C-alpha cells in the first residue's frame, strides 16, 4: 500500500465526529462497526448483530457537515481532525469564527501589522491583522464577508488572548 494512502487512513482514523452537536465519537472507538455503501446515498451500518439502513440526506464538504437519516431519526454530524479540534479550542476554528462581529486575539502576542481600516469592505479569508505569538507570525483572516466598523489594534502593541482587535458592522 502506498505510504500516502496509509497516512491518509491514519489521519482519518483519528477524526472525531460530533453528533447532533454534543457527542464526540472517535473513529477508532468503533472497531465492530462496518459501513457499506449500497448505492447512491444509501448505506448499511452493521454494529455486531444490529443492522441499520442509513441515507445521506445532505453533505457540506467545506464545513465537514453531513445529515443522516437512520431508522427514522435524523442525525447531524460534524467531523474534525485533531488539528481542527485544537484550533477550535484556541478560538481559531472555522466554526468559532463564522458570523462573528468581532475579531479577537486567539492568543497573547504582538501586533506586527494591520491591513484593515474602518469602513473597508472585506471578503472572507482576507488577511486583516498579523500577530506574532510564540515566535510565529499568524495572519488573522476575515471570518466572513463584511464591513469593518472599527480597528482596535495598532502595529507594535502587545495584546492579550481574547482582546478585541477589530469590529465588524452588524
Helical element count? 3
Reading side by side through the largest sheet, how are the strands ordered? 2-1-7-6-5-4-3
Oligomer designation: single chain
Distance between the termini: 52 Å
Helix-strand string: HEEEEEEEHHEEEEEEEE
Question: Main β-sheet, in a few words?
Answer: 7 strands, antiparallel
How many strands appear in the DSSP assignment?
Answer: 15
SSE class: mainly beta
Q: What characteristic shape results from the CA principal axes?
A: elongated
Indicate the radius of gyration in whole angstroms.
21 Å
Tell me the helix content.
10-25%
Mean pLDDT: 78
Structural domain tally: 2
Describe this structure as you would to a colleague:
The chain is mostly beta strands and 170 residues long. It folds into two domains: 3-82, no CATH class; 99-168, OB fold (Dihydrolipoamide Acetyltransferase, E2P), CATH 2.40.50.100. Helix content is 14%, strand content 49%. It is built from three helices and 15 strands. The protein has helices at 3-13, 82-89, 94-97, and strands spanning 16-19, 23-26, 33-39, 42-47, 50-60, 65-70, 73-80, 102-104, 109-114, 121-122, 127-133, 136-141, 146-151, 158-159, 164-168. Strands 2-1-7-6-5-4-3 form a seven-stranded antiparallel β-sheet. Strand 3 (33-39) and strand 4 (42-47) form a beta hairpin. The longest helix is centred in the N-terminal third of the chain and has 11 residues, at 3-13. It is elongated. The relative contact order is 0.12.
Amino acid at each position: 500500500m502506498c505510504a500516502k494512502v496509509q497516512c491518509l487512513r491514519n489521519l482519518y482514523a483519528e477524526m472525531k465526529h460530533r453528533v447532533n452537536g454534543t457527542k464526540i465519537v472517535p473513529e477508532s472507538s468503533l472497531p465492530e462497526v462496518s459501513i457499506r455503501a449500497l448505492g447512491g446515498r444509501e448505506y448499511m451500518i452493521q454494529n455486531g448483530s444490529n443492522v441499520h439502513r442509513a441515507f445521506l440526506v445532505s453533505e457540506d464538504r467545506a464545513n465537514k457537515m453531513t445529515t443522516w437519516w437512520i431508522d427514522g431519526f435524523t442525525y447531524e454530524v460534524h467531523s474534525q481532525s485533531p488539528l481542527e479540534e485544537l484550533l477550535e479550542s484556541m478560538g481559531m476554528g472555522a466554526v468559532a469564527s463564522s458570523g462573528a462581529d468581532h475579531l479577537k486575539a486567539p492568543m497573547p502576542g504582538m501586533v506586527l501589522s494591520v491591513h484593515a481600516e474602518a469602513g473597508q469592505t472585506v471578503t472572507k479569508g482576507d488577511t486583516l491583522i498579523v500577530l506574532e505569538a510564540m515566535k510565529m507570525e499568524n495572519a488573522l483572516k476575515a471570518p466572513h464577508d463584511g464591513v469593518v466598523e472599527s480597528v482596535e489594534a495598532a502595529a507594535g502593541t502587545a495584546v492579550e488572548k481574547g482582546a478585541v482587535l477589530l469590529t465588524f458592522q452588524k
